[in-house]
Amino acid sequence: MQYNTIDYKKRVCRAMNYISRNIEQELSLEEIAKTASFSMFHFHRIFKAVVGETVAGFTRRLRLELAANRLLSKQQDDITTIAIDCGFSSSQNFAKAFRQHFG
Q1: Residue 18 parent element (H or E)
Q2: Using one digit for the tens of pLDDT, what is the confidence trace for 22-61?
Q3: How many Å apart are CA 73 and CA 44, to the nearest integer?
Q4: How far apart are CA 31 and CA 64, in angstroms?
Q5: SS3 22
Q6: Average pLDDT over residues 97-103
Q7: How far is the C-alpha of 29 from the C-alpha of 14, rounded, in Å?
Q8: Could you give the CA distance from residue 22 to residue 57 in angstroms, rounded to a whole number?
Q9: For residues 71 and 52, is the Cβ–Cβ distance under 8 A?
C-alpha cells in the first residue's frame, strides 16, 4: 500500500496529539510510532520531515512550554515540583533545558 503526503501528515498529527495528551508521561518512540501506524525507524524520519524537529525535540519543547505556563500561573508551586510534573527528571535538567530554550 502506498501512502501520500496528506496521509503521512494526518498520521504524524495523530502522533503529535498523542504526545500532547500524554506529555507528563515518559513515552517511548515505539509507543508513539505505533499511534501513527509507522515502524519506529520510519516514523522518526517522517516525523522530522513533516514537523521540522525530532520527536524528542518536539516533546521537550512542549514540556518546556507547559512548565513555563505553570511557572507563570502557579507561582506558589516550587520549580522542582513543576519540573517533575512536566516530565523532567530533575530541576537541574529542567533548568538547563529552560536556559537553552528561552535564554
Answers
A1: helix 5-21
A2: 998 889 999 999 999 999 989 999 999 999 999 999 999 9
A3: 34
A4: 21
A5: coil
A6: 90
A7: 14
A8: 15
A9: no
The answer to whether 59 touches 27, Cβ cutoff 8 Å, is yes
**Are residues 78 and 67 in contact, defined by beta-carbon separation less than 8 angstroms?**
no
Per-residue cell: 98: 529552560
Q: What is the pTM of this model?
A: 0.85
Can you give the C-alpha Rg of the chain in angstroms?
15
Lowest mean pLDDT among 11-15, 16-20, 34-38, 77-81: 77-81
| Confidence at residue 96, expressed as pLDDT on a 0 to 100 scale | 94
Q: Which string of b and e fits 17-56 if b means at least 16 CB within 10 Å?
A: ebbeeeeeeebebeebbebbebeeeebbebbeebbeeebe
